[in-house]
UniProtKB/TrEMBL annotation, chain A:
Membrane topology value: Multi-pass membrane protein
PROSITE patterns: ABC_TM1 (PS50928)
Pfam families: BPD_transp_1, OppC_N
GO CC terms of this entry: plasma membrane
Name of the protein in question: ABC transporter permease
Transmembrane segments: 12-34, 82-105, 117-136, 142-161, 199-224, 244-266
Similarity section: Belongs to the binding-protein-dependent transport system permease family.
GO biological process: peptide transport; protein transport; transmembrane transport
From TrEMBL, chain B:
Domain of life: Bacteria
Membrane protein topology class: Multi-pass membrane protein
Keywords: Cell membrane, Membrane, Transmembrane, Transmembrane helix, Transport
Membrane-spanning segments: 12-30, 99-122, 134-161, 167-189, 227-253, 273-296
Designated name of the protein: ABC transporter permease
InterPro entries listed in its UniProt record: BPD_transp_1_N (IPR045621), MetI-like (IPR000515), MetI-like_sf (IPR035906)
Keyword set includes Membrane: yes
Similarity-based family: Belongs to the binding-protein-dependent transport system permease family.
Locations listed in the record: Cell membrane
Amino acid sequence: MEALKAMVRQPAALFGLIVVALVVFLAVAAPLIAPYSPDEQMFDGLTLEGAPLPPSAQFLLGTDTLGRDLFSRLLYGARTSLVIGLVANGIAVTIGLLIGILSGYMRGIVGGALMRFTDLMMAFPALLLAIVLAALLRPSLWIVAMVIALVNWVQVARIVYTETRGLVERDFILAERSLGAGHGRILFHHILPHLIPTAIVWGTLGIATTVLLEATLSFLGIGVQPPTPSWGNIIFESQSYFQAAPWLVFIPGAVILLTALSFNLVGDALRDILDPTQRGRG
Amino acid sequence: MVFLLLRRLVQTALILLGVAAITFLLLYALPADPARMIAGRSATAQTVANIRRELGLDQPLLVQFWSYLQGLFQGDLGRSYAQKTDVGALIAARLPATLILMAAGIAVEVVLGVFLGVLAAVRRGGFVDRFVMMASFVGVSAPQFVAALLLLYVFAVTLAWFPMSGFGTPAHVVLPALTLGVLGAGWYARMVRSAMIDVLNQDYVRTARAKGLSSARIIFRHALPNALLPIIAMIGIDIGQFMSGVVVVEAVYGWPGIGQLAWQAIQQVDIPIIMGVTLVSALAIVLGNLLADILAPLVDPRIRAR
């Protein structure tokens, strides 16, 4: 509640919050709002020459190359993006938290090995890896989510590792240990709660990264497969038409930008609010 | 310093070894079968088996990996399945185009970023300052391919100032470099801005002002060099990111670099090329970080003293 109040006071964060709420609402209510079915190829959705229609009163944002309503497809595409955003990022944050905590808490071989592994993953060309995996795996929505999770957990692990290392050195952990608390109790009752702000911040910022990555993979034709609409594959399907029908590329593009931007703004504001030491930094 | 460098070199070699191992495992664990890809849809099981034997794909995984590593230590990246040529030579032929693109993109980023960052820091709270803060977020939130298509639409289709795609003249490099550079410039500006604000608040800047030096001289001669350190670290990180992201930009602009090479190879399940490009990208990431670590003490004596 406090966080919400603090956010409403910053114009940029408020803007982000409103857009995020709007996107979530539109995605959930897509069947109620969409004027047409997203997959329906309409007879009057193309010109007599078979070209897509520009935005008009009948088709708010125009139609695509198959005569489908772009507005309806974007609404359903929001579902795809948000589902992938939540699933992929949920998995990434969970893996990151787990590996970060364990490598930060455990001394010796296990902790060291986990951290070396994380370092190794940092040197991996993430986007290239995602493209290779997605292309060779016959992508479906869930595969795309898994691929994104697989390349996105590394950053979270790094940050959680640093924070855990700092926490382990603190006196209250030492006190707890001398009182006889076991590892499980220290990890889950004393360290994990301190990491929740980090998880929330990265849970939010990560959705922006995920939405962008999904769009990029789909744009290359190796993300979510048509006919399931996704913001990326809408652009993929019409990119060769973009000179004649620019709205088919730039309206979804603007939607992707706005959504990613809003999650970034909200995440950044959350970081300021939840972690006062970061306030005003770069 | 020499000891440190040696240690970093060993680390680099280990990391590359790890990247090679993971990529190798991943590629061979995937369901895509290169032998079937080469043989084509209508090939008999016998043909596929022959090709598999010819490529050594019938060997146990560890044996395959060991022979790949042996080649790697001799600088041999293997042979492409589809193009039947040396992967090292293929990458070497494509690398210059990618490096040109990378250099141009980073140049755009640094020039725009430093310029806007200094302006924002000098006039805090002003128009440029607010613009920089917003642009840095928009830059990291914009999908690269949409920016690429937008630049194409405005400057190649509508205004026809630059060619749509291809490679060869300086005009060809402008739009791809802008795509890579403009989006990142906001974040550079943000870094320069916060570093500049720190520096401008220091005593020696006040002394310079008290001596009556001109603002321009203080900003560019006294303050800016001290604010450039974060930029060096960022360029180091950027080199790696460029290598990883270059597939998308090269695909949109038909730029004949290693990104395009990788993209074709991915579609043909040409594993040696995918391995090679992944390793080159990983090398770029590691070298980028190494470069930043080496340059930082050269630029900033305070780090050298530590």
